[in-house]
Amino acid sequence: MELNPKAIRGSFVDFVDDPFFRAETECVRYFQDGLMILEKGKILEFDSYANLSDRYANLPIETYEGLILPGFIDLHVHYPQTEMIAACGEQLLAWLEKYVFPTELRFQDPDYARKIASFFLDELLRNGTTTAVVLTTIFPGSVEVLFEEAQKRSMRLIAGQMLMSRNAPEFLINEPHKAYAENCELIHKWHGKDRLLCAITPRFAITSTEIELSLAGKLKAEFPDVYIHTHLSENLKEIEFTSSLFPDCIDYLNVYEQFGLVSDRSIFAHCVHLSNSAFQRLSASGAAIAYCPTSNLFLGSGLFKLDQAKSEAYPIKVGLGSDVGAGTSFSQLKSMGEAYKISQLQGQSLSAFKAFYLATLGGAKALSLDSKLGNFAQAKEADFIVLEPNATPLLRLRNSSYTGDSFGDLPGDLYRDLDAISSQLFGLMILGDERAIKATYVNGELWQSSD
To answer: Which residues fall within 8 angstroms of residue 381, CB to CB, at 6 or more apart?
Structure first.
């Protein structure tokens, strides 16, 4: 890595607080002409160009048109499902049997796994995602190659070996004690190495025996700073099946609670059909929800209650997950756009600032990594993207005349700035895709596609 400081100049947008609970104008930070100084992969200083330019007059400056934002954070994505994205015609359980399980068998071959891992990580970066929580397979080699490829790209990545010991094809069943030993080895080797972190990953309660979940709880007790990453209450038939397997548990969440798997480092994907009690218990535990809009719609799972998860009475940490391959795009812009539509269907509204918060600082808080990621605070890791609001002919036409919504009685310059930025970001989350990602920086370095 280059050790000399370097500078990035342009229009910067990030968040300093949660716009679901405070006025958006108090949560958004915007420098129309800002300067960010980078050194050793971190943010050395960040302020307006006018305030910093004299001190760094001799430093080479890379200047960008567009909007510079923190890199997107994906809280839930399956890299082995990359090649089977857009598989038609089933809901969750049948979809797994028909498409997912046969595909995951191929990942027992490390060379094949590396090929897909390399494509997968480049696709994330092409879409502006610089941090991801990734599911793998039961094969330890599928985790090894993913970590190796992420390490090459200096990415912040969280992953673990999938735990599955029943209700799946024999070729995807792993003996629980063997899986426990393999996970121990992976954690010792990779957790905390460079920017890599490990997760204990039961696929979901249906595919784990009580013995396996007990061993997952043992792993968590032995490695308390390792994450838990799994699925929760995605599909009604899944919930019914789970209830039949664990009749002594009061609900789906209680299955994980019984084995010590619910804490402030637990990430639960989907959570579409939670009771009020489950929402309240997740809030009390400090656990996070990975909201996966494109997947929830594609599989017909249901409409996530974002307003309830972000209620003042029992707030829950929430970030966005692409959930490829049930999710239909690697682009978190697409995730935001579908989240907006889901809110509309429930009589709610999701603003651009709230959506982009979920994909940046909100995601970092969900991972308890907001001391390292999520905005442009000094000493944070320098993962950021450059968005082009006029990336396509349609966006260019739309932005030439659209003024957006009013922020009310604000000083003239601030009103015009926030109004314009809100409008541009909203246009991007409804109409944008990877073409709107003008540049992706990882750990302070510009990512270059190998294409």
So the answer is: 41, 42, 43, 156, 195, 372, 373, 443, 444
In terms of pTM, does the model score above 0.90? yes
Mean pLDDT of residues grouped by 10 in the chain (451 residues)?
80 98 96 96 97 94 97 98 90 92 96 98 98 98 98 98 97 97 98 98 98 98 98 97 98 98 98 98 98 97 98 97 97 98 98 98 98 98 97 93 52 65 96 98 93 65
* 43-48: long-range pairs with CB below 8 Å, 24+: 43/376, 43/377, 43/378, 43/379, 43/380, 43/381, 43/382, 44/5, 44/378, 45/378, 46/12, 46/376, 46/377, 46/378
What's the pLDDT score for residue 450? 73
Give me the torsion for CA of 94, 95, 101, 104, rounded to 10°: -170
Q: Give the SS3 label for residue 36.
A: strand
* Alpha carbon 260 to chain centroid, angstroms: 24
R_g of the chain computed on alpha carbons: 21
Enclosing H/E stretch for 437: strand 437-442
Decide: 24 and 353 in contact? Cβ < 8 Å.
Answer: yes
Written as one string, the DSSP assignment of 55-116 is TTTTS-EEEEEEEEEEPEEEEEEEGGGGGGTT--S--HHHHIIIIIHHHHHGGGSHHHHHHH
Burial of 115 (0-12, 13-18, 19+ CB in 10 A): middle
- pLDDT at res. 402: 60
Say what the pLDDT of residue 2 is.
47
| Among 37, 120, 40, residue whose Cα is nearest residue 74 | 120
- Chain position carrying tokens 């978190």: 332
Report the C-alpha gap between 339 and 354 in whole angstroms: 11
Q: Which residues of 152-176 are buried (b: 16+ CB within 10 A; e: fewer)?
A: ebbbbbbbbbbbbbebbeeebebeb
**Other residues' Cβ atoms within 10 Å of the Cβ of residue 94:** 12
Structural element, H or E, at residue 218: helix 210-222
Strand-strand pairing, 42-48 and 28-39:
antiparallel
- The whole-angstrom separation of Cα 186 and Cα 195 is 15
